[in-house]
Amino acid sequence: MSGVANVEIWSGKARGDENFPVGSVLIRHNLRRHIHAFYSFARNADDIADSPDLDPADKVARLDRMQAVLLGEADPDVAPSAAALRVSLAATRVSPVHATDLLIAFRRDATKLRYETWEELHNYCRYSAMPVGRHVLDLHGEGRGTWGASDSLCTALQVVNHLQDCAVDLATLDRCYVPRVLLENYGASVEDLRRDATTPALRGTFNALLAMTDSLNANAMALPRRVRARRLRVETAIIVGLSRRLAQRLRFQDPLARRVKLRGPDVIASVLSALWFLR
Description:
63% helix; Farnesyl Diphosphate Synthase
């Protein structure tokens, strides 16, 4: 990595490309820049882990440098988004642990290509997804009593994202998050993800993962009721609704044929159902 001034990689992906709102207008104005600082850090680290042009050792080394900058142990110019997040954390007094937890997942992405069991995938989500919700909750001064429902929501979002991108992940990175044991239970294999359409065995696997996601989304429905900040209550209710609707779309549409996405009616219905939490 000698001669590399900035270790970060930016994919060009914008907040509008995400499935779910990132620092939307529902977030208090004075907190949005801090949400965006965390998002930029996470996006750049994710892009390092997903780069097809870097070898695993280089990816891990870059992620290590991001952590060093975040913790004030390296020149901030080496990782600008990590430096910006360090400033944000100092201003808000939120712990850096959520950001460093994310880096654990991204280091894993740099070196791990297959998952054996649901439990192993869930442990990955502990670091790849749960820290995002925990950071937002801490930023709003919410108590840890909100973490359980938030963890369920973030894990559900991660799993549906894996299902959305299962074909692309395998084709571009040779990475598969669908657990091997679950595939074998339904008579499917990783290679089935390279097909143009989902086989009955693969559909059984997807539906099993979606059933687990439904359980997570059911747990997540408690989150808006536990959040004290009124605007954040509405935001979390919208995201729960979107998560449930995307899981439903994945149950009836084929992610191998095309990327399954939320539509306008999904967003409208989720927003309308969330308005109850304005009371």
